[in-house]
Amino acid sequence: MLAVATPEVLWWALLPVLFLSVGGLLLLTVASLVRRLPDWLPQAWTVVTGLAVLVACVPMWCEVRDEGPRTTLAGSVAVDGSTVLVTAVLAAVVVAVALLARPYLRREDLPGVEVYVLLMLSAAGGVVMASADDLIVLFLGLEILSIAVYVLAALHLRRIESQEGAMKYFVLGAFASAFLLYGMALVYGATGSTRLALVAEHLSATVLVDDSMLLAGIALLLVGLAFKVAAVPFHAWTPDVYQGSPTPVVAWMAAGVKAAGFAAMVRVLVTSLGTHASDWAPPVGVLAVASVLVGAVVAVLQTDVRRMLAYSSVAHAGFLLLGVQAADADGTAAVYAYLVVYALLATGSFAVLTVMGGDGDAAHHLDDYRGLARRRPVLAGAFTLLLLGQAGVPFTGGFVAKLGVLAAAVADRGYWVAGLAMLGAAAAAFVYLRILVSMYLEDPDAEAADGSTGPAVPLGARVVIGVACAGVLFVGLVPGPLLDLARDAVPVLVGS
Amino acid sequence: MDAAVFIVSAVVVLTGAAGVLVARNPVHAALFLVQTLFGVAVLFVLQDATFLAAVQVIVYAGAVVILFLFVIMLLGVDRAEDLGIEPIAGQRSVAAIVGASMLGLLLTVLLVGVDGPTGARGANAALGGAEDNTRRLGEALFTDHVFAVELTALLLTVAVVGAVVLARRVRGPLQPMPVVTVASATGSDDASATGSDEATATGDDPAAEADDEGEAG
Amino acid sequence: MENLLDGWGITLATFSPLVGVAVMMLIPKEREDQHKLIALVTSLWVAFVGVLLLIWFDLDHTDKLQYVVDKVWIDVISSRYAVGIDGMSLPLILLTMLVVPLCIVYSWNHFPDPVNPKAFLILILILETGMIGTFVAQDLVLFFVFFEVVLLPMFFMIAVWGGDDRRYASLKFFLYTLFGSALMLVSFLALFFLTGADTFTFSGLADAVAAGGVSRNAQLWIFGGMFLGFGIKVPMFPFHTWLPDAHTQAPTVGSVILAAVLLKLGTYGFVRIAIPILPEAAVSWAPWIGLLAVVGIIYGALGCLAQTDMKRLIAFSSVAHMGFVMLGIATLTDFGINAAIMGMVAHGLITGMLFFLAGSVKERYHTLEISRLGGLLVQAPRMGWIFGFCAMASLGLPGLAGFWGEFPAILSAYNPGNGVPVETFRTFMVIAALGTVLAAGYLLWLLQRAAFGTPPEEFADDPHITDTTKHEWISWAPLLALIVAIGIYPNLVFRVTDGAVDASLTPCLSVEGEAAEKLDCAEVYKIGHDDGHGDGHDDDGHGDEHDDEHDDEHAASGN
User: Fold this and answer.
1) Which chain A residues are within 8 Å of C193, Cβ to Cβ?
2) CB-based contacts of B160: which residues, under 8 Å, 6+ apart?
3) Is A7 within 8 Å of B143 when comparing Cβ atoms?
4) So where are chain B's domains?
5) What pTM, to 2 d.p., does this model score?
């Protein structure tokens, strides 16, 4: 029997995946063995796991910064700045969602362990996506993430909306996965490898006489990834899913899934297929503009705040694509900065929505926000800050983020793209303004005004909203550190 | 010879696939799926990938489809579904056009592109070395792709957990679609303008859904 | 005297209001008196700093940026915290610092519904930071940030404290301005990347453009983007429709700030950014700007004649007045731009005053329907006379500030600057002059119907109708005094602005490359400049340092 040379493993680089997956599985095991698990334990466990990942990110970041990026596991996993940054974002969102989830589950009288298990496993998938240096690994990470999120979306077992949204999400997501897989197969066929580094190497070393197969592969990859990040015209699932799913889960979808999706997109398109940027950048630009415009305009027509934010997340995806289509280091850095800011904004906003949902998670109509400023001034103030951040008002993180992607697009001579996207941004600002108008300018409904002071804000939500607001303000006032971080995080391909 | 085998198995695969789509009885559809999978197995043999062919038969035809049948029979849905209803008007024809053009595009690309040189090694060229197919496959799986294999384990676990979660019934009845506050109809001026996207009624009304979809798309 | 404020005076003035805001945030909103006091003290403090800035401002070198701070702000995008004051921004900054405390005094005892002085005053102070910041910024990103900061408080002011139709008006205001600034931001970025400049500072970009590297076509497009952003804010003719709505619905103080300062952000943007950085494009765009300006003048005046609401009428008169300002700017001459800045200041003082008056009238009569008003001079004689005085100032009566804004602007169109088609502008001049006649028409008409005659029956014995109150006097007196002072001695403004305007036009005069196609720039410039002061001949080197006093005389004696 010949010995098989197993590949070298950098265990420290796998710590986040290990923490999250082992944490999830351990919780699952314990929960199925112990008859009555204390209510707080799963939440505390998830928070601790998330924090552990965050802590682990610090030495990883230093290591990568000092020793340079590298790959492990025979080149299938990358260890570089982007990996660590996105991992940290995902871990932070996991902590936030865990904090939001417990009061939500209690309020809705739902069973309480699976959420945390699935959340951690899906985060593990997200981390895999962010660190994948191989198309197959990327696909598996995406599937782990997605399948967990499909189930999470359906988790509100009592609400038919939740089931319906999850069903749509699942069917369309499965389609997207098929596209993605087919695209990967074609890229493999054209380049002879699934390793991102080898693909890039092959493409830079060879001039393809006929690159139609590669182009078809890129197109299909693009379709698959655009589905995952909810870019127009592949966004149709977003409003229904955002409306139906349990609100803390939506926070994860908006902040976490999007971050992982864009991390993957940047890895594949910009770093690996960067040589063919002139082929894929224009369509991505079209997707970006379409997303911003359609997202903003359709959001204006909504009266359900979750749907509004769903469409606004489509518009945000458009802005992120704006950074992707620039296809250079600046654009990529802008995308990462945007992802961090958007994670803060989305988590904070959906934390507010979680609180506002009330019993049955149903009070999400715009009218339910009437006069909130009078009933709950602090909550309304925080929501105002978060919405202004989403609108990209100066002195909030949103402005810095938008400015970054826009600058990247303009630097890449994408004037039309940038101009149209800015028009979309102006239209989107109207959406947030509608919520603000409702909160500040309209009188609460008669029954709501009768002595009720609005929903109670649980401690977990307070922490999440507070941290999100502080983060958004901090980035808005002192953008330097985040932008530096994002610039250091631009991924580099390392040949195995 | 090769061509003949290919053509025969391709016909088997395609008719099977079409059968899955067309069959009104889910059990029949599952059996058509078996036919497709066998056809693919033959294609594998044709490519000298005997191991894959065996796996194909054992895993897909032997396990997966049997599971399908189990589920179909356990859930008692082994009756014809009414496929006559089109939830969104004109959906099928549009889907057919889009699908056909996608297929055409891909076929064109592949037929054109397949002649050009690619980075891939020839699929049925000799692998080199004395070891057999299976061994090399195993080695590849546990060296180059060891992480992917491990991840597959995680993926399956997630899927199982998800299936269990979804299959569980909660105590008490399903909550109906929440009725959005009636105030919207009388109070706000914007609310009435955008009725289509509002879940004012018990939103599983197919017309409202259709509207939603139409707007979203 | 030693300049104690050098290096930090601007920062102090800009951000002091925010300190006041922070303090007010901590005080519960029931303690209204404390809020008012803090807001007033803060704004007075800012005004005091402004006075110090003026005292230590080197009036001999108004073309030089003073109190300059230039620090790295956002390193990654090469944006700097660059601020400074020169002769062009100083009058506008002082105007801002003057108007804000007056507004606070004015609203002292009558906050519009829903009262909530805490929120109202906080918004005013945030506005002040935004406005001062816009005028001092010397970096495009910083400018944009402050430009946007102004937007939200104003939106809320209209939307919360405004009239019955406030939602529509506030959203219209917000969306218009936001669309404009969206395009503006893109053109800023395009400018930055096309020039390959290493900073966003105005001077850096102007140098980079002058050094070449931006094609003429690109310059035109970039100027177009800025034109939209600034033009909407001004507002210029086709983009003006938000203004009457916003003014009509805004609370009095909101209208005053809007008219006195916010509109100037747009015109200031033209003279500070668009023209100095993109002189070539400015020359090509000038006829179009002039055309829209003239259309605005006539359209605004005709609009005034069609109004039945006093506030709306004043709003339309703003459109006309800003048309004069834009016409002055479009001539691209030293003379015209000086006139434009004078026009901005005068319009700020006068129209601000008119909106104050409209607010006071509304408070007493609870209506601004011109047809229902009348006899103000009988019921409230002092207020009536002030009203008459302001109307006179607004229509450009010589000896009052309005004259020095309008008349030189018209005159400057006789001989527009470098490369600008002369005949076109002379036509504009004639039309604009017609506009002044119309202005006299609508203002006198307004005065006659609102102030003269006998009081209508419904208000004849209304005890609410009192003459000017103490708060009104305090808040109006400075404005009235300045209208007279500038009217008598316009050099107060011209002396400050002239050097800076000259300097800002320097790139316009030294446009390279296409000199052959154009009229000789120096020559045209000379004519335009000379024309300002009769037939004297000015042999000063153009684009060089002018002798300030010499120049002032010209400007002052001109017309």
Assistant:
1) 407, 410-411, 413
2) none
3) yes
4) 1-90, 132-168, 174-185+195-217
5) 0.82
